[in-house]
Amino acid sequence: MASHLSWHIQCPVCLSDFVDPVRLPCDHSYCRDCITGHLQSSLGPSLCPECRSPYAWVDLKDNRLLKNITEAFRRRPGSPTDQVSPLRPAQRPEDMMCREHQEKLKLFCEADQKLTCTICKEQDKHQGHHFRPVKEAADRNKRVVKEALGFLVKENQILDDLTERQRGEMIKSGSLLEQITSQFEVMHTFLRNKEEELKKELQKQQAEAMTAMLKNLSVIETRAGAGREASIMLKSTLEIKEPGGFLLWWEDEGYAVTEGMKLTDGTRTKYKSKVEDVFVTPESVSLGPYETHLPFFVWKEMLTFIRPVPDRFTVKEPGDSYLKVSPDGFSIRQADRQGSLFKSYSPGAVTNETFQTGHHYFEVDVGGKLDWSIGIRVVKSKENDLLVPLENDIQLHLKHDEGLVFTHNDTASPVEVKDQEKPRKIGLYLDCERQQVSFYNAENMSLIHTSFCSFVKPCCISLGPGLYLDGKNSEALRVCCY
After folding, report:
1. Could you tell me which residue ranges the RING-type domain spans (predicted)?
2. Which CATH number belongs to the domain containing residue 74 in this structure?
């Protein structure tokens, strides 16, 4: 019976005896730690592990009856729990006897880490060993246990923190999927609505055009029918061989018919035309540029509601006579100059805005420039600031004599891209949470390079219009605004 009962005091989650059991609304019970861990790890609605019924924090109720039954079973003589319990009275040192000498175990051998009696101490196997009284040894070893326990408590706190953070990352992963799904649904909804709008406009124009074309077709067909009948009649009269018969027709109908076809003109014979004022009504259905450039015009309309669009920033006046910043702060170029002085001088500027948290995306139009640099630069701080970032300068360069080059502080490395054509727009993405800086070809959104950035200090965007190259590289770098 005891064996049968043991099955009923086991938690279905950990398969061990219940510890602080709680009951769910569905009457299934679990250890409190087991079910709260299950609850915290659930990304969606929390369901009972056994019957899948929903539950929440407020539904956890103490199961005192099950707790009492479990504790009573543990205290039962001969139970598995009783056999292994470290708290049995028989294991107290003052009551334990040496099996060999039937003496009380009053000493503790530090060499063998065992309890001994005074007679064991004198035996050869313990020669040279150091002994301590039981209480002193226990106090000494308790300090070791406490030290180990302190270490475990600290470790467990770190692990608990890591557990919560991991669960947070799991939730973020699910949230990211929902976010992407939601954003695509917004675009799908816009495209479906735009499609319906254009179809309705097209159907309306088609109906109006069809009405006009049907009306004109009716006029054309009526006149054509009358003309065919008159033609057949006249052709048949020409087949009358008897002159008298022909003239009888002429007298009865022919003269009136032919005279009715003529126009009044004293000089020459002219006939009334039935086609001069009849034209084909053209197909007038038109959607303008949507007919030939539909994707582009729909994309332009999408820009009016798509959020977020690329961030804007303004270039700080660098105080360098060789650099010219536009009045609106959205572009920078090398100043026009004469002569060949400072040919290798390639100054740059930074933005007024700084970034240290969040996600930011920028686009810079580099056009057909032969030489430029775009990246981030850590904002200089006070000398007594103890936070030292791992980077000061992260840049993507186009060098006229080398191609694309990436630099991290003073370390440079060439960048190989699949598309051999030079990008005309550069996208810069700052992911401060994941500590990443990424460069994209903003024309097709292909990744050029990704780098680590600690973001322990605020950073600003860095722009360099490149070498002047005798005026061949005088075009400005421009911040893209949408």
Report:
1. 11-52
2. 3.30.40.10
**CA separation for the pair 198, 308 (Å, rounded):** 26
d(CA 25, CA 46): 13
pLDDT digits (tens, 9 = 90+) for 221-252: 999 998 899 899 899 988 888 988 889 999 89
The verdict on 475 and 328 lying in the same domain is: yes
Strand partners, 438: 429, 450
Largest CA distance in the chain: 169
Task: Kindly report, residue by residue over 166-213, the tens digit of the pLDDT.
Answer: 888 777 777 778 888 888 998 899 999 999 999 999 999 999 999 999
Q: DSSP string spanning 440-452? A: EETTTTEEEEEEE
Intra-chain end-to-end CA distance of the chain, in Å: 78
84 and 91 in contact (C-beta within 8 Å)?
no
Q: Where are the alpha helices (DSSP H) in 238-325?
A: 243-249, 255-261, 294-302
Q: In terms of C-beta distances under 8 Å and separation of at least 24 residues, what long-range contacts does 271-274 make, across chains too?
A: 274/223, 274/226, 274/227
Helices (H), 29-133: 32-41, 64-75, 80-84, 118-121
Same domain membership, residue 471 and residue 327: yes
Burial string for 62-72 (b: 16+ CB within 10 Å, else e) reads ebeebbebbee
Which residue range(s) make up the domain with 193?
A: 175-307
Pair 51, 5 in one domain: yes
Residues 350-378 have pLDDT tens digits of 999 999 898 899 999 999 999 999 999 98
d(CA 376, CA 394): 5
Question: 286 phi and psi, to 5 degrees?
Answer: -150, 135
Question: What is the rounded distance in angstroms from the CA atom of residue 391 to the CA atom of residue 462?
Answer: 14
Sign of CA dihedral 44, 45, 50, 55: positive
Q: pTM above 0.70?
A: no
Contact 39, 22 (CB under 8 A): no
The verdict on 371 and 461 lying in the same domain is yes
Backbone torsions φ then ψ of 372, nearest 5 degrees: -165, 170
Query: pLDDT digit string (tens) for 84-116?
Result: 444 344 455 456 788 888 888 889 999 889 999
CA dist., res. 475 & res. 468, Å (int) = 9
315 with 374: CB under 8 angstroms? no
Place of tokens 């057909």: 368
- Asked whether residue 68 is domain-assigned, the answer is yes
Report d(CA 378, CA 350) in Å as an integer.
Answer: 10
Classify residue 168: in a domain, yes or no.
Answer: no
Q: Is the dihedral of CA 323, 326, 331, 336 positive or negative?
A: negative
